[in-house]
Structures are given as structure tokens and as C-alpha cells.
């Protein structure tokens, strides 16, 4: 009885049933292995018999197991290709999501930096507009002082010219009339009327000193405005370069570990 159970033919049947169970579970490598074992048992049984009908039956079973090996191998290849395609699809989707997140993060950083630059430039522009308005008022005041000093100098010079003309005149009466006319004219124009030449020269020297100081102050304001203009041009150039700068390269992505 034990010899019958352990016969090659019975072993081949057991291996066949085991292969079918493994194939249903998707364990194709093991199923193919059991089909090979069943085929080996059938080849052994074929050598033990002399019956033509038995040999034909065994050969048919051997062909069946060979076909099952090919079918299972094909099914295994198809399933593996589908699994690989699914893995590649999942990996591509994951990479796209990570790239989109990285791109959004870079855009947010760039836009945030641009907003800060714009706000900073806006604040600086407001401050500089206020400063420029204040400086313009100062410049107008300086110009008025310069023109007033020039008018005073012109008046003093005119007085000296008139005094010289008076000295060259022959008639004291004419001298007094000219001097009186000039004095009246000066009072009408609101200019200073000095008493003597020494006072006139001293006031001219003082006015010239004031003119030098005012001109020096204007030159300083001009240099300051030139420097601010240069700084503004550099800031505008820097902001334009930052706006057209390219997005930094994304870090390499590592393939995910997918478990199936």
C-alpha cells in the first residue's frame, strides 16, 4: 500500500494539485517548480511501464505540465510588467507632486522677497520724497538769500560808484543833490545806505563771505543728491535682476520604497 502511495504516478498527481493551489495564490515560481517535479515523476513512471496506452497517457500528462509551466511563466511576466508599470506611474506622480511643492515654495520665497523689496523701496521713496521736499524748501531759501545778498552788493557797489562821481563833480550843490537823490532811490528800493566807504567795503566783504558759504552749502546739497540718485539706480537694477533670476534647481528625488 505504501509503495502504491509513493509511486511516481501518485507523486506527480500530488505535485500537480500543489501546483494548482500555489498558482491560485499567485505564487507562480513555486507552482512552476511543482509542475517540473510532477513532470519528473511522470518521466520516471514512463520508464517503469511497457503498456503503450499507459505511455501515451503519461506523455499527455507530461505535455500538460510543460504547457502549464509556459502558461504560468507568461502570467508571471504579465503581472510583473503591470506591477512595474504601476510602480513607475506612482513614482512619476510622486516626483511631480514633489516638484510642484518645491516650485511653489520657491515662488513663494521669490514673491515674498519681491514684496519686501517693493515695500522697502516704497518706504524709501516716501522718505526721500519728504526729504526732497524739505531739501527743496531749503534750496529755495538759500537761493533767496543769495539773490538778496547779490542785490545788497549791487546797491553797495552802486553807492561807491555814485560817491566817486560825486567826488569828481565841481559843484557842492550838485554833490548834495546827487547824494540826496541816490539816498532817496536807495530807500525806495529797500537797500542799505552806508555812511562811508569803509563801512561799504566791510559790508561787501561780509556779503562775499556769506555768498561763499551759501555756494559751498549748495555744492554739498548737490553732491548729496547725486549720491542718492546713484543709490536709487543701484537698488532698481538689483530688484530687476532679482525678478528675472531663474528658479534654483530642484534637489534630486529619491525613489520611494513601495511595498506590495
From TrEMBL:
Residues 178-189 have a biased composition (Polar residues). Residues 92-101 have a biased composition (Low complexity). Residues 104-117 have a biased composition (Basic and acidic residues). GO terms for biological process: autophagy. Residues 6-76 form the Nuclear receptor-binding factor 2 MIT domain. Residues 201-242 form a coiled coil. It comes from Dinothrombium tinctorium. Residues 91-117, 171-190 are annotated as: Disordered. The keyword DNA-binding does not apply. This is Nuclear receptor-binding factor 2-like protein. Keywords: Coiled coil, Receptor. Pfam families: NRBF2_MIT. It comes from the Eukaryota.
Amino acid at each position: 500500500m505504501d509503495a502504491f502511495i509513493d509511486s511516481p504516478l501518485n507523486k506527480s498527481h500530488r505535485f500537480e494539485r500543489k501546483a494548482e493551489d500555489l498558482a491560485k495564490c499567485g505564487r507562480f515560481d513555486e507552482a512552476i517548480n511543482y509542475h517540473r517535479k510532477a513532470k519528473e515523476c511522470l518521466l520516471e513512471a514512463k520508464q517503469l511501464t511497457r503498456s503503450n496506452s499507459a505511455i501515451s497517457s503519461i506523455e499527455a500528462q507530461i505535455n500538460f505540465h510543460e504547457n502549464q509551466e509556459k502558461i504560468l511563466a507568461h502570467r508571471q511576466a504579465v503581472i510583473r510588467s503591470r506591477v512595474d508599470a504601476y510602480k513607475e506611474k506612482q513614482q512619476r506622480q510622486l516626483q511631480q507632486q514633489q516638484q510642484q511643492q518645491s516650485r511653489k515654495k520657491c515662488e513663494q520665497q521669490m514673491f515674498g522677497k519681491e514684496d519686501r523689496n517693493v515695500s522697502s523701496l516704497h518706504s524709501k521713496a516716501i522718505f526721500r520724497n519728504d526729504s526732497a521736499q524739505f531739501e527743496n524748501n531749503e534750496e529755495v531759501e538759500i537761493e533767496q538769500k543769495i539773490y538778496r545778498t547779490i542785490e545788497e552788493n549791487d546797491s553797495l557797489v552802486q553807492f561807491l560808484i555814485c560817491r566817486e562821481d560825486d567826488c569828481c563833480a565841481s559843484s557842492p550843490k550838485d554833490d548834495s543833490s546827487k547824494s540826496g537823490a541816490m539816498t532817496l532811490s536807495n530807500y525806495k528800493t529797500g537797500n542799505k545806505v552806508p555812511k562811508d566807504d569803509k563801512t561799504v567795503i566791510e559790508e561787501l566783504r561780509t556779503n562775499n563771505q556769506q555768498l561763499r558759504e551759501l555756494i559751498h552749502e549748495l555744492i554739498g546739497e548737490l553732491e548729496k543728491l547725486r549720491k542718492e540718485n546713484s543709490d536709487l539706480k543701484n537698488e532698481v537694477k538689483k530688484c530687476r535682476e532679482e525678478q528675472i533670476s531663474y528658479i534654483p534647481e530642484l534637489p534630486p528625488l529619491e525613489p520611494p520604497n513601495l511595498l506590495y
